Structures are given as C-alpha cells and as structure tokens.
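Re: the request from the purification team.
They wanted to know what the chain is likely to look like in 3D before they choose a buffer screen. I agreed to run a prediction and write the result into the notebook, where they can find it.
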Amino acid sequence: MFLSFHGYMNYLLWMAPALLLAMWAQWKVRGTYAAAAEVPSRLSGAAAARHILDSAGLQNVEIEPIAGQLTDHYDPHAKVLRLSEGVFGSRSAAAVGIAAHEAGHALQDAQRYAPLVIRNIAVPAANFGSGIGMLLLFIGAGMLMQGIPAGQPLIWLGIGGFACVAAFQLINLPVEFDASNRAKQLLVAHGIVGNQEMTYVNSVLNAAAWTYVAATLQSVLTVLYYVMQFTGGSRDE
C-alpha cells in the first residue's frame, strides 16, 4: 500500500517526470525573469496594464500593488488586477510582460471567455479536492488495513478529490496560454515594447507556461497513480 516506505518510493518514481519538469520550469522562470528585469521598458508594469485595460474599455478594473514576488493575479470577483512589488512600478520587459498577461485575464473575463468561466466555476471543487483528498485516502487506507470495508468508499472519494484538481489544471491550461498570447499581441499592437524587448517578454511568458504544464502533469499522474494502486494495477504490500 502507499502508506509503506516502498509505496512512498514508488510514488516518487511515478511522479518523477512531473517533479523534474516543475523544477526545470521554476529554474527557467527565475532565469528568464532575472534577464528580462534588466531590459528597460518605457512603461511600468502598472502603466502598461492600465493602458491595455483602458484601450479595451475596462476603466472599471482597478490595479493594485501586492506584496511578494511573482504573486501577480487578476481577481475576477473584485475586478481587480494585483501586481507584485517587482512588477507594479518596475519599468522592465519582465514587468510589462507579466502585467500584460494579467491584463489578458481581465479581457477574458470581460469577454466571458468560456474556459475562464468554467475555471472560475471549478475553483471551489478544486480547492476542496486539494484539501480533503489526501486525508480521505489515508483514512480509507488505514481502515482497509484494519479490515474495515467502509474504507473503500473513502479512498475513492479521496481519488475523486484529486481528480477535481486535475480537471481544474486541464481547464486552466488554455486559460493561461490564451492570456499569454493576448499579452504578446497587445504589447506589440499598443507599441509598449519593441522587437528587442519582445524577445525577453516571450522568454518570460513561455517559461511561465511550462509551470502550468508541470502542475497539470503532476495532477494527472497523481490521479492515475492512486487509481492503479486501488484497482490492483500496482500493489506495494
């Protein structure tokens, strides 16, 4: 069973492709971000995002600074675009690229972009699944090891929780890719960056895309691993 040390090692081996990809993606993001942060831009991240939003008629969307590094996000409920300290006031290719990506999410929201609508609906299920999935698996597995059949439904509920997370990640991929594509097009269309800066913007956004791919792969592999464990496909007795 996965509760054993042998089972834990098998889990790590099974997840190795996703973990290695995630490590590489994070390294790539840090490297490309650091390089792009040294390339000057005529606008700050906040100013670039404001220009993009206003040009799309989204004057109602506020832009706020938020603490931390790479904590940038768009809040569709509050209609607020929050930019991290290194992006909000920074005049660099990295800052405008990330700010434009988040502005792309605001445009998706305003246009009712279908994958974003579905993703927003799926957020509660994904949050619940990530919080309760492992707990149900451990409780269910422990009950089965003590010969209590009622543990089986708990295990499948736990796997269902992880499946919700995997489904959310799969839905999230087109949302993030589309936001990056919008950012690249808008930065050029509005003349915010030139060809040289655009090379660095592309590097940052493309590297960030790999983090979403890694998270999706990890979620899918997690579901497959536990399904195999509890359907007899891989046993660690």
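For the purification team: The two ends are 5 Å apart (CA to CA).
Please add any questions underneath this entry.
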